[in-house]
Amino acid sequence: MSQITCKYIEPRIIAFLCRAECLGTTESRRRVYYGQCITGKRTNTKHMFATAICAQLTMASTTAEPDSKKSQYFTSRNKRTIIISAVLLIVIFALINFRTHISQFYQQSTSLLTLNLELVTGEIHWHECVPAVDNVDCGRIIVPKDYFNAEVGTASIALARYKAKKFPRRGSVFLNPGGPGGAGTKLPITTGSALAKLIGDDWDLIGFDPRGIGSTRPATRCFSSQSSSTVLFANTVIEQGITVSSIADLSSPLLFDELVEQHRQFLAVKEAHAKLCGEMMGDELRYMGTATVVRDIDFMSKTIEGEDEKINYWGISYGSILGAYLVNMLPHRIGYTVIDGIVDPVSWSNEPSHKWPINWIVDAEKTYKVFLLNCSKAGPLQCPLTEYKDEPLQHLERRFEEFFDAIALKPIPVPFGNRPGVLTSGGARGVLEISLQRPLSWPKAAEIFASAMAGNATELYNLVIRATPLTELDSPDPFISPRLAVTCLDSPRPASPDEFPTAEDLTEQGLKALREVSPHFGLSTSVSEPDGGCQYWPVDGPERFAGPWNATLETKMLIISNTADPITPKSSGLLVNSLMPDSSVIIIQDGPGHCSIFLPSLCTAKLQRGYFAGEMPKNGTVCPVDVATFPNEESDKHVQALSKDDLELLDALKDLEASF
User: Fold this and answer.
1) Which contiguous run of DSSP H or E holds residue 624?
2) Rounded to an integer, what distance in angstroms lies between the CA atom of residue 396 and that of residue 432?
3) Where is the chain membrane-spanning (predicted)?
4) Phi, psi values for residue 556, rounded to 5°
5) Rounded CA gap, 442 and 649, in Å?
6) I need a surface site. Which of 31, 330, 443, 644 has the fewest CB within 10 A?
7) Pairing, β 584-592 against β 621-624
């Protein structure tokens, strides 16, 4: 027994102590430290301690003579005493070397009760979600951290699965909610039943948190705390957006100088952020790119469904980038694929990220005009931005510009918002651009802007400076760092520092967007899409995909674009469709908003559901919307005339919209 005890117990005691001592460090440091610790380079005391424990356990097993009752009594008592003492000594030793605060312990998502360091690639564990959700399992799957180098270890991908209710079950559909930075596990948990109405209840719907995001590990951690993240970005152009003092004269030398000054701050904050990420994360940052996530989907599909089963996928916004990568990197593996709200994958993969927005805002002016027109038709009762019904659009536009120009000169103090501060013109205009993406929120957005114009800007300010949700309190940086960890591995890196974009370069790019594409929102995307600065990013990924984008698929991919999407224009959907003319079909939803789900269309929804059932829509089909942006009696009558099944589907689509 002594040989068995020491052979199997001693290494586990050492592993326990090494794991406990490493908890307060970053992921990269923890791996190096643990490797040194477990191999004995840093563990003389631990080896001696483990040997002593083994000796005590061995003594406990050999103390008594079996034929002596007295000896048996004392042996039993000795065993208990020695074992209890050994356990207490281990705990005391671990606590002495436990070099972290409890908050950091939580952030690393490591438990002293989970001591198995030899994670097996391909292991998948399903369990009840906490809190429990009807018909949803949560889980994790262990995947290779680097699909080209097994020696760097594993990653743990967080999963949530809304289970099929109709049989025979057809398989699994993997989901992505956009971002990058969106946690896919939220989709089955918060809106699984609504998605099942859209995709079909004979599919398992699997949400997963992509690399570096949500509950997947390693997570992107560039800051030690939420407060340190806030301190870096607070009251900078990263948080408040770029302020255009006036769009009345976009050739003004003064405007050029103002924008250069703001972009200098932008670059300085981006450089500091990148250095912090490199210091905190090291090489762990290398594995967050979209190409690696494609490999994860392939690995997960094979593990869950089997080697020969096709991959099925549904994604919106950035999820269209992931979908485009997926079908073009692994065309032979693809089953059903729906992408909605299309980002141009050619630009994404071949241009630096600071040049992306000019392609995104192609339809922003069109969306803005729809907003102003619908507001004008609704009148002051539903849209308080108006003074009377059918007020000319130019009046509303002028009202906005006067407001933006005024607070560009004199920002509004907001002492009692989510955080004391000021509302800037850049922040306010950025919120308007974001509001255009969600047409069902237009009545509320109109109310908030009207209140700010009347002197109460707290609600508008709170849309710029958002309160941190309870679910994100344990995340030092729930949004910006995880996003950049993806975008900076996807976009091409400058060949040398001589090619780094300057503040003047960024200003020229912004003015080009204002003059040639969108005078109102040419420099307003940074509030919702904080990209750029990737020239400072400290690492490159193991793989970067840049095309080609013309794969041939066995089952055509379904593309969905809106006619007036302010951030992912119809032209991007048509581009992907044209690159894959024999392997894709496109549905055009005739309405405003970002992605079809943000202004429900029964036509679009039924075509999607039919697609996942094997019915291919006609390429170029145009679908109307079924919900008014400012509801009135006429729109209410339309809804009331719908069938029971259509009403249920429409309610599901509204639930889906509300969950994002």
Assistant:
1) strand 621-624
2) 13
3) 81-98
4) -60, 145
5) 22
6) 644
7) parallel
Phi/psi zone of residue 171: left (φ > 0), alpha (ψ -120 to 50 degrees), beta?
Answer: left
- Three-state DSSP state, 217: strand
Backbone angles phi, psi at 582, to 5 degrees: -100, 0
State whether residue 549 is helix, strand or coil.
coil
Query: Which residues of 145-280 form beta strands (DSSP E)?
Result: 154-162, 171-176, 203-208
Nearest to 559 by CA among 246, 320, 300, 220: 320
Q: Would you say how long the chain is, in residues?
A: 660
Type of residue numbered 617: P
- What's residue 255's pLDDT? 98
CA-based nearest residue to 433, from 535, 425, 419, 260: 425
Token output for 449: 């802007």
Which amino acid is present at 198? L
Q: Quote the distance between the C-alpha of residue 358 and its chain's center.
A: 22
Give the chain's residues under pLDDT 70. 1-118, 469-476, 478
Q: What is the spatial distance between Cα 549 and Cα 559, in angstroms, rounded to a whole number? A: 14
**Could you give the CA distance from residue 5 to residue 51 in angstroms, rounded to a whole number?**
11
* Whole-number Å distance between alpha carbons of 657 and 50: 56
Q: What are phi and psi of 553, to 5 degrees?
A: -115, 150
Q: pTM for the full model?
A: 0.83
Which is nearest to 125 in space by CA: 82, 102, 156? Answer: 156
- At 337 the pLDDT is 98
Measured CA to CA, the distance from residue 124 to residue 512 in angstroms comes to 50
CB-side exposure of 153: number of CA atoms within 13 Å?
18
The CA-to-CA distance between both ends of the chain, in Å, stands at: 59
